[in-house]
Amino acid sequence: MKSFVDEVVATPGGENIRACIQCGVCTGSCPVANEMEYPPREIIAMIRAGMRNEVLSSNSMWYCLSCYMCTVRCPRGIKPTEIAHTLECLANQQGFRVKGTRTPAMYRSFVSSIKGNGRVHELGMMFRYYMTTNPLAALKMLPVGLKLFLRHRMPLIPKRVKGKEDLSKLIQKFAEIRGSE
To answer: Which of 12, 13, 42, 145 has the fewest CB within 10 Å, making it most exposed?
Structure first.
């Protein structure tokens, strides 16, 4: 079995992780580092230390905004943003559930909507999200949803893209490459 660091090194963006000098530029550049359980510099150190369970059960990668500031500023060419996406995939594949954030549930609802319709269907996405996180919270959103519906901003029936089969093939190929859902 591969070590955790070898597993990350084998993914797109993870190849330079061993070159990290722990300078902290990534963390200093990250606009949401203060929200993360472990900021980018610590995540990289933990990966290198083999702390798989701690990393994959943390909320850190789910808070990544994909702004790429850490990647652009890294003096060693490490790609923390790509590593965060890899960690999201690994956490999903290996069944890790993050405590204290609902971001993974929103991610899964979003992906499900794209897979089903070829584009986001907000009503379906939010329905799935609330049903998997907190069904009673959906009741609080009914007035907002009703206003959106009455203004024709939230259709009941999803609009599907043309060539959805081609999109499905593309999504499947991407999943095979990334090893994700």
So the answer is: 12
